[in-house]
Here is the input.
Amino acid sequence: MSNKEYRPTLAQLRTFATIAECKHFGTAAAKLSISQPSLSQALVALETGLGVQLIERSTRKVIVTPAGEKLLPYAKATLDAAESFLSHAQGANGTLTGPLTVGIIPTAAPYILPSMLSIVDQEYPDLEPHIVEDQTKHLLASLRDGRIDVAMMALPSEAPGMKEIPLYEEDFIVVVPADHQFAGRQDLQLSALDELDLLLLEDGHCLHDQIVDLCRRAEINPISSTTAVTRASSLTTVMQLVVAGHGSTLVPVSAVPWECTRPGLATANFSSDVTANRRMGLVYRSSSSRAEEFEQFARILQRAFMRSLEHARETGIELKTTSPLVNSI
Here is the structure.
């Protein structure tokens, strides 16, 4: 029987939400940096106060009860609201301050983060960004569960319950072995992809899907390529395969300074009349009250992208000239 005077603490709700997420008491305790007995005590206090069993314990596994499944979204919403309250209190002077957990896809993180973190360190010293690098589907799941505040990914996300802030459009360039016939070309059509043995990132990476979509526009099936069955989890690995002569690939222009300057590689551009790019943006929960902060953070990311373009031009690699910012924030 519940105690009508009982009010759960944020720590108790966080304990419940973390156990439900981890499905393991030891893992949840480690994630919260508390002992397992303290974790169990917090859960018992919550269940006793509510008069409801939230978690079913057994020697083999942890199960969220039907009542727990029903109450879990409310616990997460309460925790999210508390974080928003704290963030707004810390940012009452109109600047970004306090913790901000940012998800970012692997084909953007290595190239945008250095400039983004530099801007934050210099201009927003009270902001505490926590970075989570993961594939799009996992970032969206983390957003829904409240594990991250905002995510940088390719648009559209097509995710219900989310809002998007467009950031910039980013050209793809073709990367080939140094002795390839396309090396240095500036007039490629999409049909040229049919002449390449394309190396793709593994399924789940949005860049994999974007390259496949470009091929479909040209009525090409990249999976029929002999090397398209080769899958890598990072662009750096793909570049090493290109250097070794195992195929060619496409990369976003922000990756040029880090991935395309190594010996054995050459680049080529699509013709100016060919659209081959991706649109990047920020995605956040539509229920979040931190939209104004995310707009500020979006401006930081736009500046970071512009810096990455400057670095790309400094390499001497010829690039298409475009108007990259797609949202005047």
